[in-house]
Write a structure and sequence with these properties.
Layout: H1 3-16, H2 18-23, H3 29-50, H4 55-71, H5 77-89, H6 93-105, H7 115-136, H8 142-162, H9 164-169, H10 177-180, H11 185-189, H12 193-219, H13 226-248, H14 262-278, H15 295-298, H16 308-312
Helix pairs in contact: 1-3, 3-5, 3-6, 3-7, 4-6, 6-7, 7-8, 8-12, 8-13, 12-13, 13-14
Length: 313
């Protein structure tokens, strides 16, 4: 790919994915470049859904992206590079189409009914990214895919817990109605004491659920090339730390976005490198994958392009 395109991808990562930008330094050069390009592609699609000037225009743009990956042709430079990346890494275009479908759902009236619906959404917008990252890091072992999906879903659950107020500003409520009731975004932004308590309890439970997915995601590191394990472990730990900060701060979702300090990032980097080098669990294949983590995905109707069973059964 042109050097200017790679520089652009890195600039996007530095500006919008600070945790991932830090972690990419712990990947080999080729893997880091591929991961950066994949991030730019996914972020580009996500920004269409989040920063649009109008829902019809955004839906039209996402429809064009789906068509591009279905046909293998586009005049958009970022999508063109995405198509090249998929070809280089042998990534099924249907996975990207699944991601786009998840982003399309963000443009509807987002009100999650229950935890299973939330987890299916997390698969669409983040588990798919885990699948693609496996390929970008040159992992072809099918046993790795289930764990990669789990790591993506864990990160998305963390995002949802961190961004409760920001999502409400966009008119979205990802918190399941079974946990918080049928709250409107306005009720989230101006919560009563009882509403605040319900949301905080929901966040506590979702962060605990995310921890289960993080644990499974880390169990899959052994399937990655040794040079890629530290970078992926650090990405997981940096994101998991957001949830830890949320809990430490009393789950005060109304006080703005929780961030991890550079001091803590440096400490996490040191410990991640030590773990990869000295802890046997990152060099020992797991006995099995926790099937319960994927029950909400397997036991629900799926769109025609949902290739979950093909990739992670």
């Amino acid at each position: 790919m042109p050097e200017s395109s790679l520089l652009d991808a890195n600039a996007v990562l530095a500006a919008k994915g600070k945790s991932f930008h830090w972690a990419r330094h712990f990947l080999g050069k080729n893997h880091a470049q591929r991961a950066t390009r994949l991030y730019r592609l996914c972020r580009y699609i996500d920004d269409i859904a989040d920063e649009h000037q109008g829902i019809p225009q955004a839906l039209c743009a996402l429809k064009q992206i789906k068509a591009a990956f279905a046909t293998g042709a586009s005049s958009d430079p970022i999508i063109q590079d995405g198509l090249l990346l998929l070809a280089e890494c042998n990534i099924d275009p249907a996975i990207v189409i699944e991601l786009v479908m998840g982003m399309e759902s963000d443009l509807a009236n987002v009100r999650m009914n229950d935890e299973d619906a939330l987890l299916r959404y997390c698969y669409q917008v983040a588990g798919t990214v885990g699948l693609m990252m496996c390929k970008a890091l040159e992992t072809e072992k099918k046993l790795a895919f289930a764990h990669a999906i789990d790591l993506g879903m864990a990160m998305q659950l963390t995002n949802i817990c961190r961004d409760v107020a920001a999502d409400a500003v966009l008119g979205r409520r990802y918190l399941p109605a079974t946990a918080v009731g049928d709250l409107s975004p306005n009720e989230i932004l101006n919560p009563s004491l009882s509403t605040r308590a319900r949301i905080q309890n929901c966040l506590l439970n979702l962060l605990a659920l995310a921890d289960r997915y993080y644990q499974s995601g880390e169990q899959g590191l052994v399937y990655l090339p040794p040079a890629a394990r530290a970078g992926v472990l650090l990405s997981a730990r940096l994101y998991r730390a957001i949830g830890e900060e949320l809990r430490h701060n009393g789950l005060n979702f109304w006080q703005g976005r929780t961030v991890v300090s550079w001091r803590k990032k440096s400490m996490l980097s040191f410990f991640a490198l030590g773990e990869i080098a000295f802890q046997k669990k990152h060099w020992r294949f797991p006995d099995s994958h926790d099937a319960a983590l994927h029950a909400p995905l397997l036991n629900a109707p799926r769109p025609a392009t949902w290739h979950f069973l093909d990739h992670a059964s």
